[in-house]
């Protein structure tokens, strides 16, 4: 069971109009504004249970025994189901999963499949039927938008990584069923008054110019008995992430916060809304930086700073740039001193280019290639290049960058359209966001009730 996050975040698309497919396959989740985010209370780990400090265990248990399959209210989850879903996660992490991590992932996949089964069963009990045509429509969109393939190519690709189209389609069916169930059984009973919306908009305007942070969090609960083990597990996750693992995929599988459903994304928040330990860590971080595990009340958190901005203030990084890239490559096996000498000659020649109008001629003389892009946002570039380009005037070039393997290149700034003043969400947009947050809080309770009442047998 997931704990309630200290910062609630809506986990569905606006008005539940589209499905959110796990593992980042369909990116339809929009971040809520910080001032409408509410704090949830952290419950005592044992609640009202009467648990002794030193319990005596009767009978034998082996924590190393992994139960591979389950029967959920009479419906079987097979080992094949788990293997095929696990293959999607492993592929999302570039295949970089060690054996110990694989065991933990397998258990988490089983938990996810149990939840998915309960959601589909509840929708069916409510006479909500997701047709094959609806599933296929979403599957086709996923193939095009997320994999850049047609349906036949995606089928072949999934089979090649050890998964299957059937596994992904079932995942899509579960998302569609749950969204439709919430839309019918929960959303009609959610109401956000005009006064509440106005109050939030007033707070937004009052906070204009203050900094907001978009943060991803992976939370792992711990108690006095397992604290060292949980911290060690958290450190292993951090190590995997630093080696290129997907933060979103790890958050979905491991985080015990309600934001796990959206890849750990807390949305745009102010540091004052975070626990003191996380606020102190985030204040020193740059966009794209990862830190943790950070000790917090009840466990440990791993946080990833996705971005920063100022409330209702235009962000220079939203400027649309017109760029020309001039690049040279090195022959395979070239000596480092020779590559360095050629790079120096290239850098000196680039300094003599006066504006983008001379770029093609200069590139030809240098034996370099040139590529143009006049519709790229500064924020879509690596942070180091963002800072460099935003300080340039039109016609100037960056310092050379690259490597012997990838070659050396420069970017010429040919134009810049600065963003207009940020207006923030309008009344209807803000009201919809607030309603979606409340729907998703109810959804978490709904799923907890389904788990509590389920009959689950393990093999």
UniProtKB/TrEMBL annotation:
Residues spanning the signal sequence: 1-40
A GO molecular-function annotation: peptidyl-prolyl cis-trans isomerase activity
Pfam families: Rotamase (PF00639), SurA_N (PF09312)
Occurrences of domain PpiC (ranges): 210-307
Keyword Oxidoreductase in record: no
InterPro entries: OMP_Chaperone_SurA, PPIase_dom_sf, PPIase_PpiC, SurA_N, Trigger_fact/SurA_dom_sf
Keywords (A to Z) from UniProt: Chaperone, Isomerase, Periplasm, Rotamase, Signal
Keyword Glycoprotein in annotation: no
Protein name per Swiss-Prot or TrEMBL: Parvulin-like PPIase
């Amino acid at each position: 069971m997931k704990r309630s996050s200290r910062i609630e975040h809506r986990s569905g698309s606006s008005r539940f109009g589209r499905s959110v497919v796990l593992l980042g396959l369909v990116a339809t989740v929009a971040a809520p504004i910080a001032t409408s985010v509410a704090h949830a209370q952290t419950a005592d780990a044992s609640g009202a249970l009467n648990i002794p400090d030193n319990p005596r265990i009767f009978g034998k248990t082996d924590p190393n025994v992994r139960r591979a399959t389950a029967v959920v209210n009479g419906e079987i989850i097979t080992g094949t189901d788990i293997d095929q879903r696990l293959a999607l996660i492993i592929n999302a992490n570039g295949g970089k999963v060690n054996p110990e991590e694989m065991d933990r992932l397998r258990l988490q996949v089983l938990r996810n499949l149990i939840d998915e089964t309960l959601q589909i069963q509840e929708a069916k009990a409510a006479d909500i039927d997701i047709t094959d045509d609806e599933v296929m429509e979403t599957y086709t969109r996923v193939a095009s938008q997320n994999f850049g393939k047609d349906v036949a190519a995606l089928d072949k690709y999934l089979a090649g990584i050890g998964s299957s189209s059937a596994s992904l389609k079932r995942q899509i069916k579960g998302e569609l069923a749950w969204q439709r169930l919430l839309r019918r059984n929960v959303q009609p009973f959610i109401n956000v008054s005009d006064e509440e919306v106005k109050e939030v908009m007033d707070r937004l305007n009052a906070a204009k110019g203050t900094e907001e942070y978009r943060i991803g969090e992976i939370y792992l609960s711990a108690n006095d008995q397992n604290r060292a083990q949980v911290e060690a597990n958290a450190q292993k996750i951090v190590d995997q992430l630093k080696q290129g693992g997907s933060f979103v995929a790890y958050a979905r599988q491991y985080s015990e916060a309600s934001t796990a459903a959206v890849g750990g994304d807390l949305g745009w928040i102010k540091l004052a809304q975070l626990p003191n330990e996380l606020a102190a860590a985030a204040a020193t971080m740059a966009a794209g930086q990862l830190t943790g595990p950070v000790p917090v009340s009840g466990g440990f958190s791993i946080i990833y700073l996705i971005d920063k901005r100022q409330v209702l203030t235009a962000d220079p990084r939203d400027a649309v740039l017109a760029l020309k890239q001039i690049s040279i490559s090195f022959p395979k096996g070239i000596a480092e001193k020779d590559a360095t000498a050629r790079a120096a000659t290239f850098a000196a020649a680039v300094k003599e280019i006066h504006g983008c109008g001379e770029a093609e001629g200069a590139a030809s003389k240098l034996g370099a290639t040139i590529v143009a892009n006049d519709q790229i946002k500064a924020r879509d570039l690596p942070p180091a290049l963002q800072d460099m380009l935003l300080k340039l005037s039109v016609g100037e070039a960056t310092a050379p960058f690259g490597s012997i393997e990838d070659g050396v290149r420069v970017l010429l700034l040919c134009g810049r359209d600065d963003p207009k003043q940020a207006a923030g969400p309008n009344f209807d947009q803000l009201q919809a966001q607030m309603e979606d947050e409340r729907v998703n809080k109810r959804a978490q309770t709904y799923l907890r009730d389904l788990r509590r009442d389920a009959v689950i047998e393990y093999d």
